[in-house]
Amino acid sequence: QVHLVESGGGLVQAGASLRLSCTISGRTSSTRAMGWFRQAPGKEREFVAAITWITGNTAYSDSVKGRFWISRDNALHLLYLQMNSLKPEDTAVYYCAAGSDFSQFTSWGQGTQVTVSS
User: Fold this and answer.
1) Using CA atoms, how far apart are residues 79 and 6, in angstroms rounded to an integer?
2) Cα three-residue angle 72-48-10, rounded to 5 degrees
3) pLDDT tens, 63-115?
4) 81, 36, 20, 32: which is closest to 56 by C-alpha?
5) What percent of the chain has pLDDT over 90?
6) pLDDT for position 88
7) Residues 105, 95: contact at Cβ < 8 Å?
8) Are 95 and 109 in contact (CB under 8 A)?
9) Closest CA to 4 of 117, 101, 113, 106
């Protein structure tokens, strides 16, 4: 119902910054929250950050607080994840998600690879 496409991933050195983008299309009327998740090789998918679409309230995992910033452009239907002070442990495939609230994400993108070298 909701189509999400991530972009902006790549290979960077530790300490660098990177911004991920997610385009949102399709039937988006039911979308109230957007989020970013990541999955590293051999690990389960983990929550990174989320934002409510209308009010802009945010939530972050402890591992990225102070380094990552989530934002959105309501008019352009874009979601962003600004990543600063990147660490090798941030290496993962990052996924964009949409849903009715923070606990109910139902639409997912295909993912974009982020690799951080030491």
Assistant:
1) 9
2) 80
3) 999 999 999 998 899 999 999 999 999 999 999 999 998 889 999 999 999 99
4) 32
5) 89
6) 98
7) no
8) yes
9) 106
Give the list of residues 6+ apart from residue 18 with CB closer than 8 angstroms, or none. Answer: 8, 9, 10, 12, 83, 86, 114
Q: Tell me the backbone φ, ψ of residue 89, rounded to 5 degrees.
A: -70, -5
E strand residue ranges, 1-118: 2-7, 10-13, 18-26, 33-39, 46-52, 58-60, 68-73, 78-83, 92-101, 104-108, 112-117
CA 86 – CA 13 distance, rounded (Å): 8
Residues 6+ apart with CB under 8 A from 10: 18, 113, 114, 115
Q: Retrieve residue 109's tokens.
A: 């993108």
pLDDT at 29 over 90: no
**pLDDT interval class at 30 (50, 70, 90):** confident
